[in-house]
Specification:
Blueprint: E1 6-11, E2 26-31, E3 42-48, H1 51-55, E4 62-63, E5 67-68, E6 73-75, E7 86-95, E8 98-99, E9 106-109, E10 121-124, E11 141-151, E12 157-167, E13 169-174, E14 177-183, E15 191-197, E16 205-215, E17 228-237, E18 242-246, E19 252-255, E20 274-277, E21 296-297, E22 299-303, E23 312-314, E24 319-324, E25 328-331, E26 336-356, E27 361-367, E28 388-392, E29 396-400, E30 406-414, E31 425-432, E32 441-444, H2 447-462, H3 480-494, H4 498-515, H5 535-552, H6 555-573, E33 615-616, H7 617-636, H8 641-661, E34 671-672, H9 683-691, H10 700-709, H11 719-728, H12 732-740, H13 747-752, H14 771-774, H15 787-796, E35 798-800, E36 807-810, E37 819-824, E38 831-838, E39 841-848, E40 853-859, E41 880-886, E42 889-894, E43 897-903
Parallel strand pairs: 15-23, 20-28, 36-40
Antiparallel strand pairs: 1-2, 2-6, 3-4, 3-5, 3-7, 7-8, 7-9, 10-22, 11-16, 11-19, 12-15, 12-17, 13-14, 13-16, 17-18, 19-21, 24-31, 25-26, 26-29, 26-30, 26-31, 27-28, 27-30, 32-37, 33-34, 35-36, 37-38, 38-39, 39-43, 40-42, 41-42
Protein name: alpha-L-rhamnosidase
GO molecular function, one term: alpha-L-rhamnosidase activity
Domain Alpha-L-rhamnosidase concanavalin-like: 331-428
């Protein structure tokens, strides 16, 4: 029998985090075992001050003792944690009387927990220390900073940490090697910093530490703030001595080789075209012994905290990258080469020149599409973003590598001065670090479905950077609805938690910064233009919080977000019209296309939705859902009964009003007022009603027929509601048609047109769309990726029925696909489903993770060779607890383990 040994130990949902600031962090684990029915009945956690003490089973910091509990997590409740300290922990579990093996040790490190723990200064260019206004800063500046120091020759480095931040970005180097890259697109009164392990990077004797940091000014996803850099090194030597190195006026600065007069790429992101002069690169600048005599002393703004940087918050997530080789390099003419990386990535193109000529300028352009002559199109798919680069060579070997990412498939290189080979050009593709980028899998008998799944997975991965981004090309900001959509995929495709937690917390902060008196949230946050909202985005926020909690069990997020969820519910309730009982003229998005509710975006993705009514049906249905989720969150937090009932009452009253005024007896209309209603019966209104359970039982078939017959008449932003509606009505054939129809709008059509990333609109290449509008549409919008979740739920059949996947509903679509297999990550471990049909039989295999149970639903007309499917089974195989019939299906209740069924 397999001994139960916990694995994948996580602190605050991250493995081996260095920047924990929670005073009582959440500790979690999983167990891999092949025994049916295996689960946890008790656990014991040890927390120690060293790995050695932990190895001796000594929890000198905290020992929970054996605790009876099924949930595989615990909140640390030991002595107060100390700043800049590493803690080690391990866990063992029991299944009844059986004790499992101790886990391998895990570690977390704390950050600088109080302002007094900081001794470092914010520094920047000396001429800008006393700047009075943003206009006094050089926009798009890149600055080098360096410092040398010596460590004793006779004492090895035992532990070293760098606590580092910049406004807006930095690359940190030690002894000539880049060791970290960080971003803090946040407001300076709530700024992020990172903790970097330098134990192996530092040496006895002479050392050098340096940073290239940049400030871009305001843009989508980044407030204006001010340029600045801060770094504090805490070093512990083997002889017990300690050393602290901080940014101050002993650091040396110089301007970097980026042209600060370069034009902006667009008006949204605020970044300049990167024109880099390789002759000006200070080679060896981060190595000991570099001559920095012509550099200037750093200008000191002040010791942290100092205006404008009031607070620094540890950031417990990373942006990581990998090298992408070209699929091809095409020589267009004697002077022009075009590199194809195969599909659109978020990344940094790199060109290594073997024999540069000092002063020779190489112009480059990234892009999404090619012209008929094979050159890179400068406009199509890029939303009018200037995708150029330029590099001025120095003599000999030299390398162009930009700092800021873009969405890139093609790279055109003009007049490189040599014939470029494939090994000279690459792309560093960037994405938010996730536990496993292939945690979710899907493969089936329909190749188009496989391709759609991969399109969505790829898009969600590269739409996740320092935050969930609108697009890597034009708007790198974190829009609330985009973030909600991408987060749903990131959680279910990769098992991600940390970036979602950060995003929810940031939108919570947007409420307190801008909307505390109005109950709203920002549409994009953080942001250069400050206060901006979209009403339907605010309405969707409670659902995001609840879905994340259901998957993760992260109670801390519920507690943080609940006051804002309350405010959102009150905001919606304040707009309920007394005469109709409907949400009417929902304030927000004033003076633009977002006013009173966006419905969908871009405008052509509304497909003629009739918005000319004070009460819009989609806005009202989102209000119903917001009340429902507010009630669920209040209940989970054990709030007073009358508080919960208030939300239930609001939900029911609004549902009744929608059915009375927005339902004509057959279908839902787009909107109404007190005396009249729209003649529009859009797919939006009816899919929303079906997805959120508002359709009367006797009208479900008619509504489902209506939306199915329309094909695709919703945009990538709101299409998850359409997929949920078809799933709710059990219209799996219609769902598959929607996903695979290459002739109609949708993902298959994107693939048929050569798209490799989900689009902002199905009409990116629609010749009927005016040229200026078509060119203002992005071909790298990950908000359309939630189709992956629908494939998991409706086709693979995996639904999370209870919090943290403690119970699953598995309803594989065996009647609709000849074969399929896939994996879905959950808090308890991966769920696996596979089946294959042949000669009238179907072999089905299901794996339910440790500490979970599942209800496997099968079509009622099948017979199983390996289990008794009579309504009452007197003798069942191990792990199967019940077999019964429900709503025309055979339901097999199982515990954890792998089950193989042959169906006839």
């Amino acid at each position: 029998m397999t001994r139960m040994q916990p694995t994948e130990l996580r602190t605050e949902f991250v493995q081996t985090p260095l920047g924990i600031e929670e005073r009582k962090p959440d500790l979690r684990w999983r167990v891999d075992t092949d025994r049916r029915g295996a689960g946890q009945t008790a656990y014991r956690v040890l927390v120690a001050s060293s790995r050695e003490r932990l190895a001796d089973d000594e929890g000198d910091v905290w020992d929970t003792g054996k605790r009876e509990r099924e949930t595989p997590s615990v909140t640390y409740d030991g002595p107060a944690l100390e700043a800049d300290t590493d803690y080690y922990w391990k866990v063992r579990v029991w299944d009844g009387d059986e004790a499992g093996a101790w886990s391998e040790p895990a570690m977390w490190g704390t950050g600088l927990l109080e302002a007094d723990d900081w001794a470092a200064n914010w520094i920047r260019r000396p001429g800008e220390v006393n700047a009075d206004a943003v206009e006094d800063f050089e926009r798009g500046q890149f600055t080098y900073a360096r410092r040398e120091f010596a460590l004793p020759e006779d004492a090895d480095v035992e532990r070293a940490r760098a606590y580092v931040a910049a406004c807006h970005q930095y690359e940190l180097s030690v002894n000539g090697e880049r060791v970290d890259r960080g971003q803090s697109f946040s407001y300076p009164d709530f700024h992020y910093y990172k903790i970097v392990d330098l134990t192996d990077a530092l040496e006895t004797g002479e050392n050098a530490v340096g940073a290239l940091f940049t400030w871009q000014g305001e843009g989508q996803g980044r407030p204006t703030a001010e340029p600045g850099f801060i770094c504090q090194l805490e070093i512990e030597l083997a002889d017990g001595t300690e050393r602290t190195i901080v940014t101050d006026d002993s650091w040396r600065l110089r301007e970097a080789e980026w042209d600060e007069d370069a034009p902006l790429r667009n008006d949204e992101i605020g970044e300049a075209v990167e024109i880099v002069d390789g002759r000006d690169e200070p080679c060896g600048w981060a190595e000991p012994g570099f001559d920095d005599a012509d550099w200037t002393a750093a200008g000191v703004v002040g010791e942290h905290p100092t205006d404008p940087w009031e607070r620094l918050i540890a950031q417990d997530r990373e942006v990581v990258g990998r090298k992408i080789e070209p699929e091809s390099i095409t020589q267009i003419d004697d002077e022009t080469s075009v590199v194809d990386f195969g599909r659109v990535y978020t990344g940094l193109p790199t060109v290594a020149f073997e024999d540069g000529t000092a002063g020779h300028r190489v112009d480059m352009r990234a892009g999404y599409r090619l012209r008929e002559d094979g050159t890179v199109h400068e406009q199509e798919g890029t939303q009018w973003t200037d995708m150029r680069y330029a590099y001025v060579q120095r003599d000999g070997a030299c390398t162009f590598r930009p700092f800021n990412y873009l969405g890139v498939r093609y790279l055109q290189v003009e007049s490189p001065g040599e014939n470029l080979e494939a090994d000279q050009v690459s792309l560093r593709a960037l994405h938010n670090e996730v536990p496993d980028e292939h945690a979710a899998t899907f493969e089936c008998s329909n190749e188009t479905l496989d391709d759609v799944f991969e399109l969505a997975r790829h898009s969600a991965l590269y739409g996740s950077q320092e935050q969930f981004i609108d697009t890597p090309t034009r708007e790198k900001g974190q829009f609330l609805m985009d973030a909600l959509n991408i987060s749903a995929v990131s959680r279910r495709a990769f098992g991600e938690r940390a970036l979602t937690r950060q995003a929810i917390r940031e939108f919570v902060r947007s409420h307190y910064r801008y909307w505390e008196d109005e109950g709203r949230l920002n549409a994009v946050y953080p942001n250069g233009d400050g206060k901006r909202d979209i009403p339907d985005f605010t309405e969707a926020f409670p659902d995001w919080v609840w879905q994340y909690y259901r998957e993760s069990g992260d109670r801390a997020i519920l507690e943080t977000a609940y006051p804002v969820v309350q405010a959102v519910a009150d905001y919606i309730a304040e707009h309920v019209d007394e005469e109709t009982g409907l949400v009417t003229n929902l304030s927000g998005g004033e003076g633009g296309p977002y006013e009173e509710g966006i419905v969908d975006w871009p405008p052509e993705m509304r497909y003629g939705y009739d918005r000319d009514w004070p009460a819009r049906t989609t806005v009202n249905i989102l209000g119903v859902n917001a009340f429902a989720k507010a009630a669920a969150i209040a209940d989970a937090l054990d709030r007073p009964t009358e508080e919960i009932e208030t939300y239930w009452d609001r939900q029911q009253a609004l549902e009744d009003a929608i059915r009375e005024h927005c339902f004509d007896g057959d279908l839902f209309v787009d909107g109404c007022d007190a005396t009249d209603a729209s003649e529009g019966r859009s797919q939006h209104a009816n899919a929303f009603a079906l997805a959120f359970g508002l359709v009367p039982d006797d009208a479900i078939d008619g509504v489902a027929d209506h939306i199915a017959e329309m094909g695709m008449r919703m945009g990538p932003m709101m299409v998850p509601r359409l997929l949920e509606a078809l799933e709710a009505a059990d219209r799996i054939d219609a769902l598959i048609d929607l996903l695979t129809n290459a002739e109609d709008d949708g993902w298959a059509n994107i693939l048929a047109q050569g798209g490799t990333f989900t689009w902002e609109t199905w009409h990116c290449r629609d010749s009927d769309l005016p040229t200026n509008e078509r060119q203002n549409r992005s071909e790298s919008h990950a908000m359309g990726a939630p189709v992956l979740v629908s494939i998991q739920r409706a086709l693979l059949g995996v639904r999370l029925a209870e919090r943290e996947a403690s119970h699953l509903e598995i309803r594989p679509a065996i009647d609709h696909l000849e074969h399929a297999s896939g994996r879905v990550p959950t808090e308890r471990g991966p769920v696996e489903v596979a089946w294959s049909r042949s000669n009238g039989n179907c072999d089905l295999e299901v794996t339910v993770p440790w500490n979970a149970t599942a209800s496997i639903s099968l079509p009622a007309d099948v017979e199983t060779n390996r289990i008794d499917v009579t309504p009452v089974a007197s003798s069942l195989p191990e792990g199967i607890t019940n077999v019964h019939r429900v709503d025309g299906s055979i339901v097999i209740e199982v515990e954890s383990g792998t089950y193989q069924l042959t169906l006839e």
